[in-house]
Design brief:
heterodimer; A: alpha+beta; Cytochrome Bc1 Complex, Chain A, domain 1; six-stranded mixed beta sheet; 19% strand; globular; B: alpha+beta; 4 domains; 27 strands
Chain lengths: 446, 698
């Protein structure tokens, strides 16, 4: 009884207090050359973020040329017609700024954050990168070595570092999501300078780019500066995209991966889910929170806390533009627990969300969590800029930055059950055993 | 507005930037297109620097010693609070891990709120909460903050430790350590701390043995001794009012009893010794971890602090630094290289760290040390110094975007005993640093001649180069215990001969008599590759007859036959007679056991180790390496080296699960590895001895 009363109070409390989550004001327009511009003015701190998101990622790579999109994230810091080789980072830091870039399977994002008196510099540098980056053999050769070290650092030398690679390789058969973003080093070794130049000319064009300027700016002055630096960059040939259809998984696939950096095995389940733009992707996000986010989540509570069978257990919905991948993983606490046993336990919980509705209280918990994440995603100008760019480039709807919370709020408990029934069935998944490797074992088996 | 008391005038320095060109840009938009093109090829000049607003945090203290720092910021509806207990560290010796266990146990129930109830509420409010042995951190929407804080403080100050939870967390920590047992980066960090800090508490590492040794009572004692308000700080930032925080603090912390004053005993010194290499042999390393460390003597309240900050920034503080520009941008050996000077008042290290590919690890050590020496011995380029000053000034502005910066600065002032205007005058001190200062502090605080060079990687590829470079090398296991140098292959037993290795092999597979009785062998193996079955048949007959055939999908893929005098090869239907050279090779072989001949033609090369077994390596005329297990005598692997398009390619073939066939043992499993993970596993499906005739070799 005590528990019930408590729950009711909690729900009441949440509903009374109206959320004050802030609204992000922005303005957006296109330049005649197709560059999409988004401006957000906020004078809280004398800081400005300048970012450009190009709609090109690992999924756009030619067969046999994996790793290209990410390689550009290195190559395009080498220099431009007016920025000598190796000076990019020096210019940024000697003007008190910071910069970085990142690549996913869907897009590549470059940004600088400066004290606001260097807005012009930020715009100029991004225009330089778009207009005439210098791509030459010495840059390709140096960055080729650096990327190999990045791969060793992040994946090859880390326990469980190949887990996502193994999942993608087994989940996708046709779609380029099959490959890792960092790509195969053989592919990069085999690539020619002409191929890199062609890739730049094809994708690094204003009509495939979104420029976001956020922070301590005057919008009208900023527009004039953007026109000045970006206006004369010629439009490129329109990019024709063909979505590659991935046939659904209809029979449970079994796979094994051996990792020489581990001594405790793991088990992973992976399901194909719809595009991040699909309303169901939002529901699956909530469902992964329900299963494994926080100590009161069902998988943690049951497997780590109560039954003490898992050292670690998690579920996440890897959302992407064409398809998502819903991944559940577990590492047994000790060798008394088999991977089969852990799978059985996880499957029981999936069966429950497919059969029963989650409680009102748990549902409210999921909404609170989403709201908390929303507020925390907008704490810096760089965070806001990235959000604005992402919603425009990947969702074709910038206004989602203010609306996505409502989408989550409109997902019902019935929706959660429905998506579990629709996407999380045994015959729709890959079951991957991730095992310690010895010298003479193959890396993977199918 | 009152709290926005300090406004630093525009930092003139930010205008002071050399750009390579002094051309004034006074053009307006109406000018010709040609002019505009020229303009956009010009790097723009900065506008006047923005003013920095220093918001003063509110600070008050409770009777029990807890200092509360509050920064109000109502931009977003969220609040964060952290409790930090600034106690001097202590040595825990064989109870090291009590602190980790306390971190795990905090939050598993208080006197009035059970673990489940606590977890449920925290998750329900969507908040982030982390409790640990030195305090806690919470972050939540402001509407739920009072409740979250109350729940968290209750777990922290009124914990109810249960034996059941203790046992669970103990096992989880032990199993958790196992997940990084084979990790090279984890071993490198662990050993570096242990060796560099020595007897200092920061040098203690949590091991599985220690964890097993700890009792619940140890954890409770640790909690009672350490979780006290005397030197504690509560930092609250965000959408709260000072009055509310005062009220909440009183309700939640007023009854936290002050601990009796204990006089801190002196901490053991961190000792610098003449430079040496401390090597951790990790045979599975894909990359070598390299850390150059020594004691750091700089503290934030030292007038040299800003000088050291800039000196380090030039050496390895960012992308443009000496270390990164050589190791990454010049050589392409690493994804990044950085250095730092710790300033912790209880003890700190200087560290220069990078991860490089194994083949260049020895060179990376030499280059890294050269950069350390460079900043000690050479004056820095004034332009480089100026660039680094501008970086600090700009980044100072950028940090102001986060309200937590103000709070952290206030905390820093308390904990490190800094003057009140420390941060307001910080940039002036940065600006005053000269080229001479940089070299002076490099000489004073950087000690390339008293550093530990910790290298975690493969001894075989790296140690010869380090020895050549003249370093004194010590060896440690992955927990920092001194150990013998790993077997590098040059210490073969002096009186060992190839014949002895082969004799051991022959007796292992059944004895010389059985081997002599076996005049021929015929084996069939099958492998599955992407659904296709591959069948391999090998026929061998005394004295040197040999035939081998691979088929897939009913088609012969390749074939090789030698009848003692002549023979042929067939690859995908193309038949080729054996060359005189091939014939010579076949004639010298001894079948059905080619190892017998190896005793005459092979050379003992070295010892090696893989999969925790030791091997004698015998190299034959063609350069193929044969690995004989020191313990069992069996041949477990061969490695063939071939030149393909000018590049050296090696291929390993493993022989596993030896099985007796009519008195002699033959491998029932053969794994062929191309080195890049494309392995093929063949399983024996049939084996016969003494069944062949000369007709089988046509």
């Amino acid at each position: 009884m005590k528990q019930l009363k408590l729950s009711l109070i909690l729900i009441l409390l949440t509903q009374i207090q109206v959320s004050m989550a802030q609204k992000i004001d922005y303005e957006e327009y296109d330049l005649p050359n197709g560059l999409h511009v988004i401006l957000h003015e906020d004078h809280t701190a004398p800081v400005v973020s300048v970012g450009v998101m190009y709609h090109v990622g690992a999924k756009d790579e030619e067969p046999g040329r994996t790793g290209f999109a990410h390689f550009f994230e290195h190559l395009l810091f080498e220099g431009t017609k007016n920025i000598p080789r190796g000076k990019w980072f020096e210019i940024v830091s000697s003007h008190g700024g910071q910069n970085n870039a990142n690549t996913t399977d869907d897009r590549t994002y470059y940004y600088e954050v400066f004290p606001s008196n260097n807005l012009k510099l930020g715009l100029w540098m991004e225009a330089e990168r778009m207009r005439h980056a210098v791509i030459n053999q010495i840059g390709v050769d140096t960055q080729n070595e650096v990327v190999k070290e990045e791969k060793r650092l992040r994946y090859d030398n880390q326990p469980y570092g190949h887990f996502l690679e193994a999942i993608k390789d087994n989940v996708f058969t046709k779609h380029p999501y099959k490959h890792t973003t960092i790509g195969k080093m053989e592919d990069l070794d085999a690539a020619t300078l002409d191929e890199f130049i062609a890739f730049y000319k094809k994708y690094y064009i204003p009509n495939n780019a979104t420029l976001v300027v956020a922070g301590d700016i005057d919008k009208e002055k900023t527009k004039k500066l953007i026109e000045k630096y970006f206006g004369s960059i010629p439009r490129g040939a329109d990019i024709v995209r063909h979505k590659i259809e991935e046939p659904p998984i209809t029979q449970e696939r079994h796979a094994v991966y051996y990792d020489k950096n581990i001594q405790k095995p793991g088990i992973m389940q992976a399901y194909i889910t719809p595009s991040m733009k699909d309303r169901d992707a939002y529901a699956l996000d909530m469902l992964s929170n329900y299963l494994s986010d926080g100590k009161s989540s069902v998988l943690y509570k049951k497997l780590v806390d109560e039954k003490k069978k898992a050292l670690m257990v998690g579920a996440f919905n890897l959302t992407q533009e064409d398809y998502g991948t819903y991944i559940i993983f577990g590492i047994p606490l000790n060798d008394k627990v088999s991977l089969e046993d852990l799978t059985k336990e996880i499957d029981e919980e999936i069966a429950k969300v497919q059969t029963d509705l989650i409680s009102e209280e748990d549902y409210q918990k999921l909404l609170n969590k989403v709201e908390n994440d929303f507020v925390n995603s907008n704490t810096t100008m760089q965070g806001v800029a990235n959000g604005l760019a992402r919603y425009h480039v990947l969702y074709s709807d910038t206004s989602l930055i203010n609306k996505y919370l409502d989408i989550y709020r409109n997902i019902t408990r019935e929706d959660l059950r429905r998506v579990a029934q629709k996407y999380l069935n045994k015959n729709q998944r890959v079951l991957l055993k991730y095992l310690p490797k010895k010298d003479d074992q193959t890396k993977s088996e199918k | 507005m009152k709290r926005l008391a300090y406004i630093l005038p525009a930092i003139l320095l930010l205008l002071n930037i050399s750009c390579g060109s002094n051309k004034k840009t006074t053009k307006t938009e109406n000018q010709s297109k040609a002019m505009q093109t020229e303009d956009i090829n010009q790097m723009p000049q900065p506008d006047p620097a923005p003013a920095i607003k220093f918001q003063k945090p509110e600070v008050f203290k409770l009777a029990n010693g807890l200092t509360v720092i509050v920064v109000e910021n109502h931009k977003l509806p969220r609040v964060s609070a952290s409790l930090r207990i600034d106690n001097q560290p202590i040595r825990l010796r064989n109870k090291k891990g009590s602190d980790d266990l306390l971190s795990s146990l905090l939050g598993t129930g208080s006197e009035t709120v059970s673990k489940d109830e606590f977890n449920k509420k925290i998750d329900f409010y969507g908040a982030n909460v982390n409790l640990y042995d030195g305090g806690f951190y919470v972050n939540s929407l402001s509407k739920f903050f009072p409740e979250i804080l109350k729940l968290t403080v209750d777990q922290a100050l009124h914990p109810k430790f249960s034996n059941e939870e203790f046992k669970t967390e103990q096992e989880k920590l032990i199993e958790g350590l196992k997940t990084s047992e084979k990790s090279t980066p984890a071993a490198a960090s662990r050993v570096t701390n242990k060796l560099a800090y020595g007897q200092h508490p920061y040098g203690e590492i949590t091991t599985i043995d220690n964890l097993k040794n700890i009792t619940l009572q140890d954890v409770e004692d640790y909690y009672k001794r350490r979780f006290t308000p005397n030197h504690a700080y509560l930092i609250v930032v965000g959408d709260v009012t000072l009055d509310n925080v005062k009220k909440m603090t009183k309700e939640n912390f007023a009854l936290w009893p002050k601990a009796p004053q204990v006089r801190d005993v002196g901490l053991p010194a961190i000792i610098n010794l003449p430079t040496e290499v401390d090597f951790i042999h990790m045979p599975n390393a894909e990359q070598t971890e390299l850390k150059v460390v020594h004691r750091s003597d700089i503290r934030k309240n030292n007038p040299d602090y800003q000088k050291v900050l800039l000196m380090n920034s030039i050496l390895g503080g960012d992308f443009n630094s000496y270390l990164n520009m050589t190791l990454r941008e010049k050589h392409g050996w690493t994804y990044g290289a950085r250095s730092s000077f710790g300033t912790n008042k209880y003890g700190a290290l200087f560290r220069a760290t990078t991860s490089v590919r194994n083949a260049v690890a020895d060179s990376a050590v030499v280059v890294t040390m050269a950069q350390l020496n460079k900043i000690v011995n050479e004056k820095v380029d004034p332009k480089v110094l100026n660039n680094n000053k501008q970086k600090y000034m700009g980044n100072f502005v950028l940090r102001m975007e986060k309200p937590a910066t103000i709070a952290n600065q206030a905390y820093d002032i308390f904990v490190n005993n800094l003057p009140d205007d420390y941060y307001e005058t910080f940039l002036q001190k940065i600006d005053a640093v000269t080229v001479d200062d940089i070299q002076e502090v490099a000489k004073k605080y950087l000690h390339p001649d008293q550093a530990r060079i910790v290298v975690a990687g493969n001894a075989k590829t790296t140690v010869p180069g380090l020895e050549k470079a003249g370093y004194n090398i010590k060896y440690f296991d992955k927990y920092g215990n001194p150990t013998q140098p790993p077997k590098m292959g040059q210490q073969l037993p002096q009186d060992l001969t190839v014949q002895m290795v082969i004799d051991h092999y022959l007796s292992a597979i059944g004895g010389k008599d059985q081997v002599a009785k076996t005049k021929s062998t015929e084996t069939v193996y099958e492998a599955k590759m992407q659904g296709t079955v591959i069948k391999m048949t090998n026929k061998k007959m005394a004295p040197n007859k040999f035939a081998s055939q691979t088929e897939a999908m009913g088609m012969v893929f390749s074939k090789e036959v030698f009848d003692g005098q002549k023979g042929y090869k067939m690859i995908q239907g193309q038949r080729q007679d054996l060359t005189p050279e091939d014939i010579k090779t076949y004639q010298n072989d001894t079948q059905p056991f080619s190892e017998i001949g190896l005793a005459k033609t092979g050379k003992l090369a070295r010892t090696d180790n893989f999969d925790d077994n030791d091997y004698y390596v015998v190299v034959d005329n063609e350069g193929t390496e044969h690995f004989f297990n020191v313990k069992t005598g069996l041949k477990d692997k061969i490695v063939q080296h071939k030149k393909i398009q000018g590049r050296d390619m090696s291929q390993s073939i493993y022989f596993k699960a030896y099985k007796e066939v009519n008195g002699v043992k033959l491998p029932s499993k053969i794994v062929i590895s191309a080195g890049n993970g494309q392995n093929i596993e063949f399983n024996m499906i049939d084996a016969k001895t003494n069944s062949l005739t000369a007709d089988d070799f046509k």
